[in-house]
Design brief:
Layout lengths: L2 E8 L3 H8 L7 H10 L5 H18 L8 E10 L3 E6 L5 E6 L2 E9 L51
Antiparallel strand pairs: 1-5, 2-5, 3-4
Length: 161
């Protein structure tokens, strides 16, 4: 890591920012800025600003650096604090409006005279998706060999025999 920049409290959902930063990982700074200049998304502006800031931080340490000599090694958007607002709803109720914010982090590395490889991207650990289908857990299954008990139908109220 030669430089790092964090853009905090960006008033945008992290999901929308991640959509923009996904194609920028493991690209040089010049490639990433070219891609961002043609992206028609509102999240492109703060991401552009964060990458430019990280490159400026790298130039502070080594003024001879060029945009083609530096690669984006890590780029991720974390959730920031969520603003909570209320909106009037039907029948006198109120519903919560969540105004999400993001923290955009950029980490730069030197290329070392070769093109960047598709290295594994450092991402946050998420839970594995639930499996669909298959057998139920043993605790919720009916014991084998027993048939289900038939329920008695209730007599309709008001009917006479």
């Amino acid at each position: 890591m030669i430089a790092r920049a964090v853009e905090k409290y960006v008033r945008m959902s992290p999901r929308k920012v991640r959509y923009v930063i996904e194609p920028l990982r493991q690209k040089t700074v010049s490639q990433a800025l070219n891609i961002l200049s043609s992206v028609n998304r509102r999240a492109a502006k703060p991401v552009f600003k964060a990458i430019a800031s990280a490159f400026a931080n790298a130039r502070q340490a080594d003024p001879t650096l060029n945009e083609d000599q530096v690669v984006i090694s890590q780029l991720f958007a974390d959730g920031g604090p969520t603003w909570k607002r209320h909106r009037a709803a039907a029948f006198g109720r109120a519903v919560m409006i969540l105004k999400r914010t993001s923290h955009i982090t950029v980490v730069l590395d030197r290329i070392n005279g070769r093109r960047p490889e598709a290295a594994p991207v450092a991402q946050h650990q998420t839970a594995a998706p639930a499996k669909r289908g298959g057998r139920k857990p043993a605790a919720t299954r009916r014991p084998s060999g027993k048939k289900p008990v038939a329920r008695k139908k209730r007599a309709a109220a008001g009917k006479k025999a």
